[in-house]
Amino acid sequence: MAVVSIPPFEAFYEAHRDRVYRLLVHRVGRQQAEDAFQETFLRALRAYAGLRHAEQLGAWVTTIAERVVIDAHRRNRSTDELRESETWDGRPPHAELEHLAGELPPTERAAVVLRYGYDLDYEQIGAVLGSNATAARQAASSGVRRLRKELT
Amino acid sequence: MTVPAKLDKRFRDAASAAGLLDAAYDVTDSPVGELLVAATDRGVCWIEFAPEETLDRLARQVGTRLLRVPRRLTAVRRELDEYFSGVRTAFDVDVDLAVVPVFQRHVLDELVRVPYGEVTTYGALANRIGKPRAARAVGGALNRNPVPIIVPCHRVIGASGSLVGYAGGLERKQALLRLEGAALV
Question: What is the value of ipTM here, to two decimals?
């Protein structure tokens, strides 16, 4: 399999900014979309140097945007009301993992997909999740535990 | 629906202010053609004469976190404009040569002492860094100068007075020396 090299961030940003902006407007409205947009691409930038391959970067940034929306909801409302969103563009963050990870709570799902789908290290995942490496590791391992239980 | 220009700019400035970039860049017009100018937090790290081909090369050199942030390049663009209009003879902006290997760094450090409007030769520059037999290696080091114009490799010519070579093409070298009023053979 040919290794797709990671493009300069500018190229990645130009390729995905309009789609991500539309998704965010659709999800949280035009006003909140501005902060969410900036937060999404700042998180992507924090994790960018840790990317191991350039496959499905669009799905990757969608995963991040989804996290940002969830975090914004958390700040605004009680977590009880929070429900996992559908994948907006119909493309799963990582096809092979998605059908397995789909049932997990949002943070665990994001951590599992980013760790095993995108091969990010925990520090990078922490950056994406807006937390830290320790929290990311915990989320990924409890996600994996939960998956094991569901599979057996 | 596309990203509003204001939001796009806001993100670019925020990314730069947060210190998340390997380098910020912008493209600017000049009498010797379009220039891509890039800077790290330490200073100007890259000037390139063929902007459209250069981003991948810059990424290999300094890292993939590159973003066009015009605001970050305002000072160097202004100095370049002043240089090309003939009112500036020395640059004040900081230069970042961190990725440059040691030998090349010696050559470039010595090169910046060659004043505006004067020329030196590859051999003379080799002498000045204490390596009189290294004229050819000096040529190679100049050829890979990441910050042409500001680090003035155009001021180095052959012993016979011929222009010899320039990574940006000999026409550009000649244009820069003419601008500076250097006495050419």
Answer: 0.89
